[in-house]
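quick one, two chains, predict together pls
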Amino acid sequence: MSDQNKSLDPRIARLELPQGESIVKPDEYWGTFEVFLQEKRGKFHQHVGSVHAPEQEMALVFAKEQYARRGKCVNMWVVKTTDIFAFQLADEDMFATTPDKQHREAGMYKVRDRIQEYQNRQK
Amino acid sequence: MYGGGFLPEENPKKQTETVAEDPALLADFQARIDRGEKIEPHDWMPAMYRKQLIRMIEQHAHSEIIGALPEGTWITRAPGFRRKMALIAKVQDEIGHGHLLYTAAETLGKPREQMINDLLSGKSKYSNVFNYPAITWADVTVIGFLIDAAAIVNQLANSKGSYGPYCRALERICAEEAFHLKQGHDAFVYLATGTPQQHEMLQAAVNRWYKPIIHFFGPSDKESVHSEQLMRWKVKMASNDDMRNQFLDMYVPKVREVGIDFPDPNLKKDPETGKWNFSDPDWDEFYEVINGNGPCNAERLAVRKWAEQKGRWVRQALATPYTKSTVPLA
């Protein structure tokens, strides 16, 4: 940095700031891990996002810093992003008829009217 | 914190340049957005949508990282333990936000290393406000209250956008920004209602930051064709002018109620239109600073390069032969 740009900040002024380029190389920031957080015992681990890390232990360290700074947490999982096998979102229509399958739902089974009718017939 | 993501591109020809997209796919895409559904990483999307989102999320990420610099150097000089703890927490949040956003941008296909290189080379921009110095503790207070407040207006709007990973990141970011705003307001009120010297110091800082605050949301973009298309795609959620107006509506009263004011006699709300009027904020200066000639541009990038170079041995020590870049899932 030139003198006229000298920082007002004494901490910055003491650094020997580099001149010229500083190129980050491909992969220098590592791959990603997906992070799953358990808020309390008895709950499922939930996906909360990703972190970049060189390996799984560092991924847990970064996951804790990134996703468990606030709020409740009792446990975390990290999984290499490339180890996650998923459906294509483009195939979401294969789930489209699921809500129509009323025979799988408790609410489908209503017998009160029939009981009422039976009891009326018995009178 | 963040703002002014929708700067006109340097080359106006690029703005109108569109790739011919398949009309059927385009119609489906628009219909999905109109139904209020989110777009996810592997969905088909128009090239312009992808490009503009990368640009916007990347600028947002850089703003978080660079935005931590003016505040970060005040940690050791914060007045008192409570303020120091709050500032440490806030600065850590900002860096965390940067990483959340880099990850969201990576789902669109641009590696984080490339984004960082574009920041260091000056190719990518970040919010202009961070090219101004924080001369006193009152400047840090103004940043913590008013710049974060402005950023929240912008981020809350964007969190209702159409791209899933960006919305998820913003949801988390906005929750944390609520703390930033509250601690900033607390520090602001403390100085404003303190000794005459404290009050004066705060007013002087507000005077210094008035122009950058007006610049924060970027120049008027109402006329831009570009902006209209991006609003239909829910990339951009509100015009720069509307967001600025919303900010002034919410925060001018909060500044004035503690006897501080912005140094502009023309800053008045028009009772008929509901719009705030203000003096010409000198947009030439805005462009000068964007183009690298602000008071702190060189310093900010030099500090970022310093961190890059001094941190390299740590990254190298941690790297394994299996360390390969991957695109985050969602």
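The longest strand of chain A covers residues 31-38.
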